[in-house]
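Most newcomers find our protein records easier to grasp once they have seen one. Sequence and backbone structure share a record, each on its own labelled line. Nothing more is needed to start thinking about how sequence determines fold. As an example, a complete record with its sequence and its structure tokens follows.
=====
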Amino acid sequence: MGLTEWAYSLSESMLSEPLPRRWRHSLGVAERARSLGPILRNDAELLEAAAVLHDVGYSPAIATTGFHPLDGARFLRDQEQADERVVRLVAHHSCALLEAEERGLRHELESEFELERPDLVDALIYCDMTTTPDGTQTTSVARLDEIVQRYGPDTIVGRFIQRAAPEIHAAVERVEGRLTRVSAAG
């Protein structure tokens, strides 16, 4: 079984029944990842696998700290012996270090999981932050507004996402710029 086939199967088994909306979101994020093939080349499969698995830590079967990037990455590393790069992308997706700081878990996340290459981190931010909870495409501005409204501006997630907004928007712009350059050259 290939990396993406395995990732879809695992993510579906962890999310589709207990969290169907989260599963739809994960499928949408993976679809966005596939669209980045022209700029990712050899890392396209890696990003798609990380994209479909990025929220696996929400699964009630493995949620232990309540911080899904850390729970998901630990599960993938310890229980699934997943590809190290997929694990690192899941651990650090969408500015997770900032949320870890809000939760008092930054040291754990940083010490257990190295950052992946910046262009891949940007690509996963782009995929996640331009996909609605229902799996459809959106803008990063609308997505961040939706997150703040859903969680509230004074919650851990609300505070984190407002702090992360400049970096999220910058990552989306960098990826869109790369897509534009590849399209213009091709």
